[in-house]
Amino acid sequence: MRGFDASFVERYRARRARQSSDAIPSAPFAPSAPSAPSAPSAPSAPSAPPSAKPVPCSGLQPRVPGPVSRPQPPPRARVRVLGIDTSLRCTGLAIIDAVGADMSFVDCRPIPNPARLSLPACLVRIADTLDAYLDEFRPDEVAMEGIFFCKNARTSLILGHARGVVVATCARRGLPMHEYPPARVKRAVTGSGSATKERMQRMMQAVFRLPDLPQEDSADALAIAMTHLHARLVPGR
According to the model, what pLDDT value does residue 41 have? Predict the structure, then answer.
């Protein structure tokens, strides 16, 4: 048996010690508990800006806003229309003022010619009375009843004389003249082209709120002037 080697024993003990330390299991890993979330910090109040000292400025004044001025529409012009219902024995005259679609009654009257007057005397009376009427009211435009079919040739001839005097008197003053057929006038005022004289009178009394029923020739003259004003508002009607 060989002698005991001390160095071998030391090496053996050291190896056993290392094996023993490796065989001891390590403690299992335990995750640490999550920490509680910290409360959000309150926002800090903004620091007040440093007070600015007013800088003196000479010669400048603060501008104070004034009321806003809006352009006003131009005023609508007034139009005065003379309506004429021509007849030898009784010619009707009427004056209507209009501003846009607003109409107002001014005057209406007949030019009566007695039966004892001759044709020339009746024509002179119509011309003189109409001339004075134009001086009194000074219309801007004239509207009259147009030529219509008449069965009696003599009646048509007499009416033509009266119309000629009326046209000449107005044309001498340079007034623009417009003609409308009787059926159109009746239709424009009453809605019927065959309205009676009485219906025309009552319609004119109601439209212009006249205290009394106008004379029939004056009512026709009012209707003619009213028809012309309607035609001015709606051209082509």
Answer: 57
